[in-house]
Every structure is written in structure tokens, then in C-alpha cells.
Structure to design on (553 residues):
């Protein structure tokens, strides 16, 4: 079985984002980056599948600027066999379609039986790249998976719907699934595995110039201040006293 | 301007969010073609045309083919779905089949420029699609539902039978644990609580406030708390008198489950966390310091 996982490196969401005037993406200086949370579930599920089918090969791929190689190294330490970096210093200018198209171009002749992606990226959050990729490759695809099982000749997955309902869906291989939070418990790479990962192959492919996007970013801004939140700041005792007074005034405590 | 609105059928019921699609089309003054695929006897009321396509409610390849057929006949400017498990699953397939730009989880539109939240709602991006047909999914709850009025002309069709992913059946999460839907006070913990053991700090505070304990999704996914505590679009919807959100950033799926609470108080170390959009008070604090001190002061 040949398995592919597509991952994206995203900025830590607890960062303070700064958008330079006129820019369409935030300033990346001083930010820290990590693997998109949804993609950690994708890696874990793929590694578990590989462990249950020892003859398999597990490839991890990202399209991103040079910094994204770090995400691949972590995925290798979690259990992937080799990595592909589609290098594009201007990756953030691509729309989701262009990302999916570049990935499809790189993997279409490699005969993957199963592809795992996250259901959405935490920064872009489009929830598109996974199914765009399966459609471009002409294979089965299904989104928002919280349960995964390999069956005779295919897979059966649970899709999460609103309010606690799940749909069981069966599909044949080759197939792509997009992974939702809670699918499994992603492992932490161990130190020996981090060391081993350093010897695993990491291939870098330079991507050519981008074609015109289907969707153009015109701007990026802070959301309009809709709320009227009153901030309670100061030292701990002051904050506690203020909140106690509010709770008393609202008759929520005696 | 013409908009094709695609409804979602789950368990033979048309999702009421169809009214949000109508509300969106109404705001744009668009002519409406509704499309409902699956077997349901629910009929939305609106002025325009309604196509009912009988067949399985989840069969993405067949649904895609039906939309393609209808787009060729109707030539809409927009194909619009709700950004839900149904909408985000069908929309990218349509984008490829129809070679059209797709914009996800739209929360506002002005003059053909769409606003979408990025980075967990901390930033807003303005996006403009190339001219021609555009595929949109709308953020759940972002557009006011239209008042039901009018009755559409109905056209009946049958979905083709095509190979691809197929629905085997539905399954509900077992209902055990707490029922937060009727709680009057909720102390809710998010990932900011740091680790399982620290949930005790919130539990103690909940006890003195006579409140139930709620949580965001990552706390459940990490196995720190029973799933019945989860508040949000895939958890429970709550509307207590007091909702104290501790270390919860305020992602839209969380807000969907608690924004109707009477009084929302956030405790978060990041002043820019989007929970500030719905909170009345926002305590800028580290939970490790603040929760024990508040509990002690209230005892
Ligand atoms: C289809 C779908 C459905 C979903 N359904 C739900 C749902 O039903 N419910 C839900 O909650 N989520 C849901 N999610 C997930 C949602 O998008 C967010 O990922 C999630 O709500 C984030 O949880 P959080 O706020 O606890 O964590 P984070 O976003 O990681 O936020 C943690 C917060 O804690 C703060 N913090 C950290 N340390 C401290 C400290 N020491 N003191 C004070 N503050 C601190 C940080 O500043 C941050 O704001 C869903 C996602 C998808 C895609
Ligand atoms: N630049 C990228 N490189 C590799 N995979 C990606 C990239 N962008 C998105 N993906 C994959 O597609 C999923 C959905 O992303 P998005 O459509 O941006 O929400 C992510 O969880 C990743 O698995």
C-alpha cells in the first residue's frame, strides 16, 4: 500500500498578528510555526495504517516556503518514510486551487492508494485542498472523518455532521480522506525517532512561477470590533475583586 | 444576478439553514433557483424555482452531476451552499467540475468582494473571485434567514446512479454524562487550561458558583473530559445566565454553541482572542493564577 499525507505548516495561532499596510498576508517575522493541527491527525492515522500493513510506504508532502521543511522533519519523526517539499517562497500567494493543482501534478503518477489530508488549515481555513486534490486526481474522496477503518478492498469512514450525528460512508480505493479533530490521539515524536528521521530522504522540488489565481486576495485586516467587551486588567487581586463585584451586582453570587 | 442555492438533506429532513441561503440571495437581490437533493417532503417557501432531485441524500458524485446539469441549463452567477459537512464536501467537487473559483465560509459581502475569517477569526481576508460563475459556502449563522414567503415553481428530477462514496447509515453519539442544555451557569474550559489535572481548578470554581462544567472541543479530543461537556456546533448548544469561558479562544464553531448566553465572561491571557467579540467582560489573566484566587474569594 502506498500512502500519502499532505501537511501544511501554519503560524502559531496564539501569535500577535501584524499586517503591514497594503499587505494581503501577515508579517511572518518573529512568529513561530507548527504543523496544522488537523494534519497531525492525518499523519497519525497514516502512521497507524502503515504499522498495520508493514509492506506499506508512507510519504509526507508539503507545499510551502523553505521554513516548511521543519514540518516535514516532524512528520518523519512521527513515522513517515520519506518527504517531499514543494518549495515556493511565495506559497501564501497561492489560492487553494493552485495549491491542490501543484500537489496533484507532483503525485499523479506515483500511484498512491490512500491519501490523508487535514479537513482544513488553521490559517487559511478553506477546507478545500483535500477534495480539490481527489477530484483533480479523479479518485474517491470524503471529508471530515472522525472514524477510519480499512475494509476488504476499500475503506469505511465516519463523517462528523452537526450536533453529534455521524454518517458512515464506504468507498473504494484509491481514496482520499480529510481528517477532523479527534480522529485519534496524535503521538509525540520520541528522541530516538527524531534522530532516525534525520537519515530519512527529504526531496525538495522547486516550483515554477505561479499561474494567475482563481481567487485574488485584496486585503487582510483585523476584524471590526463588534463586541463591547470591557477589559479587566491589573494585578491579580484587583482583577479578582472586580470580577467578584460584577458577579454580585448581577446576583450570580450571594 | 442569479443564485443557485443548494439545500442539505439529513435524515430525510431539509436543514432549516436553507433560509440563510435565501436571506443571502435576498440581500443580493438575486433571482433564486433552489436545488434539494435527497428524499424529503420538506418544501421551502420562496419566490423562484425549486428543483427536487430524488435519490440518496449523500452521494457526492451524483449530486455533483446534478448540479453540473442544472448549471448548464440555468446559467447562475453563484452556486451557494452552507459551510457545513454537506456544503464543504460538495463545493470543492463543484469547483473542479465547473472550473470555477470557490470561496469558503463567507461571512460578509460587499460589491462582489467576500470577507472570510482566517487564523481562527483573528483576521479577516477580503477575496475577489475571477469573473464568471463562483462557488460559495456561507458561514453558518452569518446571514439572517429570510422570512418564508411565496411558493416556487417545482421541477422534479432523479439523481443519476454513479460510483463513488456511498452512505451506509447514520449513528448518533451515545447520550451520556451531563446535559448542559438546561444549565443556568456554566464554567467552561478550553485548551488554555494546559493539562488534564488543571481542570480541577475550574471544577472547584464551578462548585462555588453552583455551575456545570463545560468545555471546548480540544479538551474533549485530548481525552481530558467526557464528550458530553463539549459546547459548540458539534457539541451542545447552551444559553445559560452565566458562561465563564476559561482559556477558550472563541472559534466560530465554539461561539455557535454559546453566543446566546445572557452574560459571557472570558478569562484569557490573549487580549486579542476572538472570544472578545461576544464577551461582556474580558479578564486578561493567566488561568493558573486567576482561577484559584477567584475561587478562594468566592468561598
Ligand atoms: C467542523 C468543526 C466543528 C467544530 N466543533 C467544535 C465545537 O463544537 N466546539 C468547540 O469548542 N470547537 C469546535 N471546533 C474546533 C474549533 O475550531 C477550535 O479549534 C476550538 O474551539 C478551539 O478550542 P480552544 O479555544 O479551547 O483552543 P485554542 O483555540 O487553542 O485556544 C486556547 C486559548 O487559551 C488561551 N490561553 C492559553 N494559555 C492560557 C493561560 N495559561 N491562561 C489564560 N488563557 C490561556 C489562549 O490565549 C487561547 O486563546 C470545530 C472545528 C471544526 C472544523
Ligand atoms: N500548502 C499545502 N501543502 C500541503 N498540504 C496542504 C497545503 N495547504 C493545504 N493542505 C492540505 O489540505 C488541507 C486543507 O487545507 P485548506 O484547504 O487550506 O483548509 C490541510 O489540512 C492540508 O492537509
Amino acid at each position: 500500500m502506498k500512502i500519502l499525507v499532505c501537511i501544511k505548516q501554519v503560524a502559531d495561532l496564539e501569535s500577535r498578528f501584524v499586517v503591514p499596510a497594503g499587505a494581503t498576508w501577515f508579517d511572518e517575522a518573529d512568529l513561530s510555526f507548527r504543523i496544522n493541527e488537523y494534519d497531525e491527525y492525518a499523519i497519525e492515522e497514516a502512521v497507524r495504517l502503515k504499522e498495520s500493513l508493514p509492506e506499506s510506504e508512507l510519504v509526507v508532502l508539503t507545499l510551502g516556503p523553505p521554513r516548511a521543511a521543519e514540518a516535514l522533519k516532524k512528520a518523519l519523526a512521527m513515522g513517515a518514510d520519506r518527504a517531499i517539499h514543494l518549495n515556493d517562497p511565495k506559497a501564501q500567494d497561492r489560492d487553494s486551487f493552485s495549491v491542490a493543482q501543484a500537489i496533484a501534478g507532483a503525485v499523479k503518477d506515483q500511484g498512491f492508494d490512500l491519501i490523508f489530508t487535514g479537513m482544513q488549515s488553521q490559517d487559511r481555513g478553506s477546507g478545500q485542498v483535500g477534495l480539490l486534490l481527489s477530484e483533480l486526481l479523479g479518485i474517491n474522496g470524503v471529508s471530515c472523518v472522525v472514524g477510519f477503518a480499512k475494509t476488504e478492498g476499500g475503506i469505511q469512514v465516519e463523517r462528523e455532521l452537526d450536533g453529534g450525528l455521524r454518517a458512515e460512508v464506504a468507498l473504494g480505493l484509491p481514496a482520499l480522506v480529510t481528517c477532523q479533530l479527534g480522529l485519534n490521539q496524535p503521538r509525540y515524536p520520541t528522541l530516538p525517532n527524531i534522530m532516525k528521521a534525520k537519515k530519512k530522504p527529504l526531496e525538495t522540488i522547486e516550483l515554477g512561477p505561479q499561474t494567475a489565481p482563481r481567487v485574488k486576495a485584496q486585503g487582510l485586516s483585523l476584524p471590526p470590533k463588534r463586541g463591547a467587551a470591557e477589559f479587566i486588567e491589573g494585578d491579580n487581586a484587583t482583577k479578582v475583586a472586580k470580577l467578584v463585584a460584577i458577579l454580585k451586582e448581577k446576583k450570580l453570587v450571594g | 444576478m442569479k443564485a443557485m442555492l443548494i439545500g442539505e438533506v439529513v435524515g430525510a429532513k431539509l436543514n432549516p439553514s436553507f433560509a440563510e441561503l435565501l436571506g443571502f440571495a435576498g440581500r443580493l437581490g438575486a433571482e433564486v433557483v433552489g436545488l434539494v437533493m435527497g428524499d424529503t417532503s420538506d418544501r421551502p417557501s420562496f419566490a423562484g424555482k425549486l428543483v427536487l432531485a430524488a435519490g440518496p441524500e449523500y452521494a457526492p458524485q451524483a449530486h455533483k452531476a446534478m448540479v453540473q446539469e442544472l448549471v448548464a441549463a440555468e446559467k447562475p452567477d453563484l452556486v451557494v451552499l452552507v459551510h457545513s459537512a454537506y456544503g464543504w464536501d460538495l463545493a470543492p467537487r463543484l469547483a473542479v467540475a465547473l472550473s470555477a473559483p470557490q470561496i469558503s465560509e463567507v461571512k460578509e459581502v460587499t460589491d462582489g468582494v467576500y470577507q472570510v475569517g482566517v487564523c481562527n477569526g483573528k483576521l479577516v481576508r477580503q477575496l475577489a473571485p475571477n469573473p464568471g460563475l463562483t462557488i460559495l459556502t456561507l458561514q453558518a449563522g452569518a446571514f439572517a434567514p429570510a422570512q418564508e414567503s411565496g411558493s416556487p415553481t417545482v421541477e422534479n428530477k432523479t439523481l443519476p446512479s454513479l460510483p463513488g462514496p456511498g452512505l451506509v447509515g447514520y449513528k448518533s453519539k451515545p447520550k451520556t454524562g451531563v446535559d448542559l442544555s438546561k444549565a443556568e451557569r456554566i464554567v467552561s474550559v478550553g485548551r488554555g487550561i494546559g493539562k488534564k489535572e488543571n481542570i480541577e481548578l475550574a471544577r472547584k470554581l464551578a462548585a462555588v458558583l453552583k455551575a456545570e462544567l463545560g468545555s471546548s472541543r480540544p479538551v474533549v479530543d485530548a481525552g481530558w473530559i467526557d464528550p458530553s461537556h463539549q459546547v459548540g456546533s458539534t457539541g451542545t448548544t447552551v444559553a445559560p445566565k452565566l458562561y465563564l469561558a476559561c482559556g477558550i479562544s472563541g472559534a466560530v464553531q465554539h461561539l455557535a454553541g454559546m453566543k446566546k448566553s445572557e452574560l459571557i465572561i472570558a478569562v484569557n491571557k490573549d487580549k486579542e482572542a476572538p472570544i472578545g467579540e461576544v464577551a461582556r467582560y474580558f479578564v486578561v489573566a493567566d488561568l493558573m493564577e486567576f482561577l484559584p484566587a477567584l475561587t478562594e474569594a468566592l468561598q
Observations:
- Chain A touches chain B through 80 residues (CB under 8 Å).
